[in-house]
Amino acid sequence: MEGIYTKKMVCPVCKQDVDVPRLKHGAYTIISRDSDLHPWVSGVNPTYYLGVICPNCGYAALESHFEELKPDELKKLLPLLAKKRLTGTKSITVERTWDDALFILLSVYEQYEVRGSDPYNLGYIAQNIAWLYREKKDNENEQTWLQKSVDYYLQAYETSADLPSTLGEAGLGYLIADIYSRLGQYRDALQWASRVVQMPKNRKKVLFDQLSRELWQNLRENYKSGSNEEVNWNTTIRSEIQSFFQSEGLLTSTFDKLIKNIGLWASGENLQYLDHLKKEDVEAIASFEWFDQLKDVSKGHKLEGDAFLIKLLPMGTEEPTVYLLPDAMPDSSAIVFTNKEPATGMNSSVRVLWHGYGFLKGTIQTLYIVEVRK
Ligand SMILES: [Zn+2]
After folding, report:
1. What residue spans define the domains of the chain?
2. Strand partners, 23
3. Residues within 5 A (CB) of ion ligand 1
4. Nearest to 181 by CA among 215, 207, 221
5. By CB count within 10 A, which of 70, 146, 213, 220 is most buried?
6. How many whole angstroms from 17 Cα to the centroid of ligand 1?
7. Beta bridge partners of 303
8. What is the DSSP letter of 2?
9. What distance in angstroms lies between residue 188's CA and the mean position of ligand 1's atoms?
10. SS3 365
11. What is the DSSP letter of 34?
12. Which H or E run includes 11?
């Protein structure tokens, strides 16, 4: 077939020669690319030729790694190959069809999982399988394989697996963002896109910087106009905060600032400022966890300190007094609500009752409720 030649390789399992088809230069022309870099081509489809399968023993691998098989991987693989032998292997000609391509890539994927291959390769194969389904307009299977792909890509990112130099950390981050967006998981998509945007310029390729910015923009527009998930999430937080302030007889500029901060977190603009926060932290901030804790602890007690907080909390008569944001730790026994990290230790008279992130006085800060014993 035009555009293809064969090269002999040795199967690392059965040691037979295998005719491996390879693409000549110019075997295909890229007409366009999807946002996840999937190419639409005229000529030979390169995705059909990513994998190789040994017609003798059924060993399958990526063409680029066909002859690489470590002894411990071979050990893991042998029972699977023995089973395959019983069911017979599929004979595949040099000129491959869509069905051949799917069969080979599914075999490679299965064997790489058994071998415990590195997560980047598994993600890459899953993504190529998803692409095959996309080319057939089989949306359901495409989504299934995109999900597998992003799961492995996340593992690859977390374990800093060896990545192709053409991709790098930024490229992988971008792919994760794009796949999440294709799966309708927009919040994760936004976070990953902004992660790439915020990587130092010298650590990423111009292409991925640009693609991530475009994706980020699109997602923000969608986010504003409404994927259900994001709209629900946004309105829940908004109405919670609103009803809290209203129940306290207050609707101040603090509300707007909080919305702005939470909103910015979601869109990624403010990520650098907040990027040490986990999702749970942000939820704690949005639900005013610190205020609920403070209300519980201070119930019935005398209050001292910050005038704004005194207005929000019911005043009681019980000792010890609850000090709200004092400049210094009190000398007598007390309960203290503070944004300064308290000195605690083996012999300390200070015990932390609660700590976490909270929105207070226009910013997000670490807040503590401590008990002082004298
Ligand atoms: Zn073989």
Report:
1. 4-154, 228-279, 289-372
2. 4
3. 11, 13-14, 54, 56-57, 59
4. 215
5. 146
6. 8
7. 322
8. T
9. 42
10. strand
11. -
12. none
Strand order through the sheet with 350-360: 301-305, 318-324, 334-338, 363-372, 350-360
- Dihedral through CA 84, CA 85, CA 88, CA 92, nearest 10? 80
Structure confidence by residue, pLDDT tens digits, 188-207: 888 888 888 888 877 777 77
DSSP character string of 128-193: HHHHHHHHTT-HHHHHHHHHHHHHHHHHHHHTT----TTTHHHHHHHHHHHHHHHTT-HHHHHHHH
Please say if the pLDDT value at position 41 is more than 60.
yes
The token duo for 105 is: 């890539």
Give the total residue count for the chain: 374
For residue 296, give Cα distances in angstroms to 85, 267, 314, 340, 353: 68, 33, 11, 21, 11
Q: How far apart are CA 109 and CA 105, in angstroms?
A: 6
Q: How far is the CA of 26 from the centre of ligand 1 (A)?
A: 30
Whether 180 and 189 have beta carbons less than 8 Å apart is answered as yes
Q: Is the pLDDT of residue 104 over 70?
A: yes
CA 18 to ligand 1 centroid distance, Å = 8
CA of 95 from ligand 1 middle (Å) equals 20
